[in-house]
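Weekly structure sync, notes
Attendees: PL (lead), two postdocs, one rotation student
Agenda item 3: pending single-chain targets
PL asked that the sequence for the first pending target be pasted directly into the notes so everyone works from the same version. It is reproduced below exactly as submitted, 86 residues in total.
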Amino acid sequence: MADAILMLAGLLIFFSIVFSVLRLILGRTVVDRVVAIDTLTVISLSLLALYAHLSGRFVYLDVALVYGLLSFLAVLALARFLERGR
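Predicted structure, written out during the meeting:
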Protein backbone atom coordinates (compact mmCIF):
# COMPACT_ATOMS: atom_id res chain seq x y z
CA MET A 1 0.00 0.00 0.00
CA ALA A 2 2.78 2.41 0.90
CA ASP A 3 4.61 1.65 -2.34
CA ALA A 4 1.49 2.47 -4.34
CA ILE A 5 1.09 5.78 -2.51
CA LEU A 6 4.73 6.69 -3.15
CA MET A 7 4.33 5.76 -6.82
CA LEU A 8 1.21 7.94 -7.03
CA ALA A 9 3.07 10.81 -5.38
CA GLY A 10 5.87 10.51 -7.95
CA LEU A 11 3.35 10.48 -10.78
CA LEU A 12 1.55 13.56 -9.45
CA ILE A 13 4.87 15.37 -9.06
CA PHE A 14 5.74 14.51 -12.66
CA PHE A 15 2.45 15.93 -13.96
CA SER A 16 2.84 19.07 -11.88
CA ILE A 17 6.29 19.59 -13.38
CA VAL A 18 4.86 19.27 -16.89
CA PHE A 19 2.06 21.75 -16.23
CA SER A 20 4.38 24.24 -14.51
CA VAL A 21 6.83 24.15 -17.40
CA LEU A 22 3.94 24.73 -19.79
CA ARG A 23 2.89 27.76 -17.75
CA LEU A 24 6.49 28.97 -17.78
CA ILE A 25 6.69 28.68 -21.56
CA LEU A 26 3.20 29.88 -22.43
CA GLY A 27 2.86 32.57 -19.75
CA ARG A 28 1.97 35.92 -21.26
CA THR A 29 3.22 38.17 -18.48
CA VAL A 30 6.25 38.24 -16.24
CA VAL A 31 4.04 37.51 -13.25
CA ASP A 32 2.87 34.25 -14.89
CA ARG A 33 6.47 33.20 -15.33
CA VAL A 34 7.40 34.12 -11.75
CA VAL A 35 4.49 32.07 -10.44
CA ALA A 36 5.59 29.13 -12.62
CA ILE A 37 9.14 29.33 -11.29
CA ASP A 38 7.86 29.54 -7.72
CA THR A 39 5.67 26.51 -8.37
CA LEU A 40 8.67 24.62 -9.73
CA THR A 41 10.61 25.39 -6.55
CA VAL A 42 7.75 24.02 -4.44
CA ILE A 43 7.70 20.93 -6.63
CA SER A 44 11.45 20.50 -6.18
CA LEU A 45 10.90 20.74 -2.42
CA SER A 46 8.42 17.90 -2.64
CA LEU A 47 10.92 15.91 -4.72
CA LEU A 48 13.56 16.45 -2.04
CA ALA A 49 11.17 15.27 0.65
CA LEU A 50 10.18 12.22 -1.37
CA TYR A 51 13.82 11.36 -2.03
CA ALA A 52 14.64 11.80 1.65
CA HIS A 53 11.93 9.31 2.51
CA LEU A 54 12.93 6.81 -0.15
CA SER A 55 16.64 6.93 0.63
CA GLY A 56 16.24 7.06 4.40
CA ARG A 57 18.60 10.02 4.66
CA PHE A 58 16.66 12.76 6.35
CA VAL A 59 19.41 15.36 5.97
CA TYR A 60 17.69 16.19 2.68
CA LEU A 61 14.78 17.60 4.67
CA ASP A 62 17.14 20.21 6.11
CA VAL A 63 18.29 21.01 2.59
CA ALA A 64 14.65 21.35 1.50
CA LEU A 65 13.93 23.69 4.40
CA VAL A 66 16.81 26.01 3.54
CA TYR A 67 15.94 25.86 -0.16
CA GLY A 68 12.33 26.75 0.60
CA LEU A 69 13.39 29.72 2.72
CA LEU A 70 15.72 31.02 0.01
CA SER A 71 13.04 30.53 -2.62
CA PHE A 72 10.52 32.47 -0.55
CA LEU A 73 12.95 35.35 -0.09
CA ALA A 74 13.78 35.38 -3.79
CA VAL A 75 10.10 35.57 -4.75
CA LEU A 76 9.57 38.41 -2.30
CA ALA A 77 12.52 40.32 -3.73
CA LEU A 78 11.32 39.75 -7.28
CA ALA A 79 7.80 40.88 -6.39
CA ARG A 80 9.14 44.10 -4.89
CA PHE A 81 11.28 44.67 -7.98
CA LEU A 82 8.34 44.12 -10.32
CA GLU A 83 6.10 46.36 -8.21
CA ARG A 84 8.52 49.28 -8.43
CA GLY A 85 9.55 48.65 -12.02
CA ARG A 86 6.13 49.25 -13.51
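Discussion points:
- The chain has a mean pLDDT of 92.
- The CA atoms of residues 45 and 67 lie 8 Å apart.
Action: rotation student to compare against the earlier draft before next sync.
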